[in-house]
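Q: Structure tokens for this one, please.
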Amino acid sequence: MDFLKREIGFKNRHGETLRGILNSPATAMRGIPSGYGSIMLHGFKRNSTNEKKFMSLAESLSQKGVPSVQLDYLGCGKSVSEGDFTLMTVEKLRQDVEDVLCQLPKATGITKPTLVTHSLSGCVAVQSLEVSNDLNTRVLLLAPALNQQLLLRYWMIKGKRDKLKNLLEPERLLQEASQISSGEVIRHYGKFSHYARENVGRDYNPLLKGHINQVLHIHGGNDFSVPLSSVSVDFNHQIIVPDGDHDLEASSVLPLWIDAATDFLTE
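A: Here is the predicted structure, written as tokens:
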């Protein structure tokens, strides 16, 4: 099925514009209730508008007659000139997504949105579920970076080992990471200090309690950016892709989860 793509923008509560791409099916499909649609949210310093996994999922959803929005945060992708990503926090991103969700019905016709998230945006989705009693939606968590307290430290060590080409097994690095102090973490992340201060002691895993049935978790077995063991939730809906990396978009990997994700988001 053909679908139409066009750029779209949403004003947040501060008057800044988040931009993205609206994917609209050319025709409606029988069996899919009107108002269904997905909003796609990218990871740290990434973008939703150019990443293969989001483009592939948008096409798959369109084949079922479901529209989607690939959204870029301020300072990223199509929103790169609209703000400074270094000033972001998970709470600020959550507020921006909340503002976009409020505008979706009028701007796109989407009244029953689902959330598709990658990496850091998993925290945004979980925080949104926790804060908003009205957000009763399905969420796709792709390689979610939920244990920020541990991962902020893990990335510090991993970065040094990558440069030395002496990367240990992720489990060893995670053990080492737990010994790093909060002060060291905040100093290390420099210009991202707002984000580091917010998350230096935060683990978003527990916030999923009570929302398990709303979530599909997909993770790569070879994800060295966000090791699978950093996710401590027992999900009812989960796909582990043995050879999948953090991006989950290699040509051999996408077919292993894209159809199941599409079905989950449109049930």
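A few notes: The radius of gyration is 18 Å. The mean pLDDT is 92.
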